[in-house]
Each structure stands twice: as C-alpha cells, then as structure tokens.
Amino acid sequence: MGIINEKQIEVRYAETDQMAVVYHANYLVWMEIGRTSLIQELGFTYAGLEREGYLSPVVDLNIQYKQACTYGETVTVRTWLREHGRVRTVYAYEIVKENGEIAATGESTHVLVKKGNFRPVSLSKVDPAWHDAYEKNVIPKEEK
C-alpha cells in the first residue's frame, strides 16, 4: 500500500465567497498544496525539478463537491498517487472536514515536459529515484 499524505489547512476568510463558504476554485489550490506535500514526503521537490529544466503541467482535472467548507474550519487534504506511467501521473485527493465527512474528491493528471520546448519526457529518464518512488506508492482505485 502506498503513501497517503495528509496536510491540514485552516480555512481563511479570504477563501470564502458571499455565501460564507469556500469559493470553489480554492479547492484546486488546496489540491496543489496536498500534491506538493506528498512529493516532499517522498523526498523530492517541484522546485528541484524546475531547476533541472522540467515542468509538470496539469493536463486534466476533475473535482466533485460534496459539502461546503466554511471559514474557521480546519480541513485535511489527503493526497495519493492513483497512476504513474511513462509520461503521465494521476494524483487523487480527498478534502475532509473536521467531523470526518468528505467535502470534495478529485484527480489531477500531469505530464512531465522539458521547459524549453514542452515536449513530454519520462520521469524515469529525468530522475530514476523519483520514478521508482512513484511506482512503489501508486494506490489503484480498487485498493483505496
């Protein structure tokens, strides 16, 4: 079984809308925070990858909103690797309220590209240790 990273986030007033709930786009920011935290837990950094001349843009994103989060709550972003292939990685997310109820779920798909030309490259060639860590920590949908 792979790693499920948990990152707590205090809901800030600036993240809410006129209905006093978290504005929907902020969940995407929280997913990015969770993804970065997972990568750090595995011993790597996006910044290091970028310094080497590579980027990992989002090519697909989906999110399902289930319950509203509000100012003053602390939510937990759970992040894990759903799939990892030659040039594509899928991260999965759950945003969980303090009472344990799931507020949102989602997935983001990323590719690894060379900064100068945006051509896809394989993580196994760029950073074999990072690639191996991803392969060891994938949690397929049927196992979660």
Describe the protein.
- GO terms for molecular function: hydrolase activity.
- It holds the Pfam family 4HBT_2.
- Its EC number is 3.1.2.-.
- It comes from Savagea faecisuis.
- With about 140 residues, the protein is α+β, with helices and mostly antiparallel strands.
- The chain has one domain (about 5-144): Thiol Ester Dehydrase, Chain A.
- Helix content is about 25%, strand content about 35%.
- The strands form 2 sheets. Strands 1-4-5-6-3 form a 5-stranded antiparallel β-sheet. Strands 2-7 form a two-stranded antiparallel sheet.
- The longest helix is centred in the N-terminal third of the chain and has 17 residues, at about 25-40.
In a nutshell, what does this entry contain?
With about 140 residues, the protein is of the alpha+beta class.
Present the secondary structure layout:
Layout: E1 5-10, H1 25-41, H2 46-51, E2 54-55, E3 58-65, E4 74-84, E5 88-96, E6 102-111, E7 113-114, H3 123-126, H4 128-137
Antiparallel strand pairs: 1-4, 2-7, 3-6, 4-5, 5-6
